[in-house]
Design a protein that fits this description.
Strand order of the largest sheet: 4-5-8-6-7
Number of helices: 12
Distance between the termini: 50 Å
Order of helices and strands: EHEHEEEHHHHHHHEEEEEEEHHH
Number of strands: 12
Strand content: 15-25%
Oligomer: single chain
Mean pLDDT: 96
Structural class: alpha+beta
Low-confidence stretches: none
């Protein structure tokens, strides 16, 4: 049985109190909302904070509403609530799909969108028990100095495995981040870095408060596709989100595509619009976009699934997404 280490659990009444606790215990504290990823990692001794600060009941992190032509989603809203919310289904159905495909129904009721965005990166050599990691000699991400994925590598390449960021990137969403120094807003496309140890531009004493999504204009269609071994529980082997704007004649005027689970951060796929903009989504255009995406995507060997097969699935998911949009 894997046991949790001793820690002090704080339940602040508001966001200011939570930020004060994070600042006071800096270096020995972590925020916790649903805890669906953090608690298993604590059992594996990947994190051993002396203090946990609960966020799931803070009013400032709640709510799903349309404000000033933007959809505001509180960071502590559960994935289950978001997947079935009328405003999400009406305006950004791809986000509802992404939330509905995270893990299992039980974990979606506890897990939050803020936690999914801030999900720790994953790796075959990292997400193991302390006994397993000690026998291996640890790794660059935790306690060791060697990367077992990239021999001789000096930078962690653990895989980004969250489902919602690609959708948010394709929709030009931004996140609201609060700290004791104030509140700031950052586009989701600029939130992540290539460092697998800490791959987001947030300080450890900051909290993600809300997600802001511009209301899509008429003609914007979207799709989310996920590849995983089983249709529940498993983390993604590949995530794909596509947003395409179509005019009245069925021609593509804009195409945005984002992928994750291939490396340590989600990224926009460039040049795909060159093959699509100005054209209808015919089979030949879809094939051209799929081929362009295939040329740019190269999975790393940090997941126990053949990398060549994962890469071969890139154009498959692109075709599925574009056919869904075309229909």
């Amino acid at each position: 049985m894997l046991r949790l280490h001793p820690y002090i659990y704080h339940r602040p009444a508001d966001l200011d109190a939570a930020l004060e606790l994070l600042d006071r215990h800096a270096g020995d504290v972590l925020p916790i909302a649903g805890g669906t990823d953090l608690v298993p990692n604590m059992k594996h001794k990947l994190f051993t904070p002396g203090h946990l600060v609960a966020l799931s009941r803070l009013d400032e992190l709640k709510g799903i509403e349309v404000v000033d032509q933007r959809l505001r989603v509180g960071a502590a809203e559960s994935l289950h609530a978001i997947s079935g919310h009328p405003a999400i289904l009406e305006h950004v159905p791809a986000l509802a799909t992404a939330c509905s495909e995270v893990s299992s129904p039980q974990l979606r009721r506890m897990g939050t969108i803020g936690g999914n965005i801030c999900l720790d990166t994953r790796c075959t050599y990292y997400n193991q028990t302390l006994f397993w990691r000690k026998a291996l000699g640890y790794c660059l991400k935790k306690d060791g100095e060697i990367c077992h994925v990239v021999p001789g590598g000096t930078r962690c390449v653990a895989a980004h495995s969250a489902d919602t960021p690609p959708v948010l990137m394709s929709l030009d969403a931004s996140v609201e981040i609060a700290g004791t120094a104030g509140v700031r807003t950052l586009p989701v496309s600029n939130l992540f870095t290539s460092d697998g140890i800490w791959n987001r531009r947030m300080e450890s004493n900051e909290v993600l408060v809300a997600v802001h999504i511009p209301l899509p204009e008429p003609g914007l269609r979207m799709s989310f596709q996920k590849l995983r071994p089983r249709a529940s529980i498993d983390f993604p082997l590949l995530n794909l989100a596509v947003a395409a704007r179509m005019d009245d004649e069925g021609l593509v005027t804009e195409l945005r595509m984002a992928m994750s689970a291939l490396g340590s951060y989600p990224r926009r796929v460039g040049k795909v619009e060159e093959a699509a903009v100005g054209n209808p989504l015919t089979p030949s255009v879809i094939d051209a976009v799929a081929e362009q995406a295939f040329r740019q995507c190269h999975p790393l060997e940090n997941i126990i699934v053949d990398t060549d097969w994962r890469r071969a699935m890139v154009p498959v998911l692109v075709r599925r997404a574009l056919k869904e949009i075309a229909a």
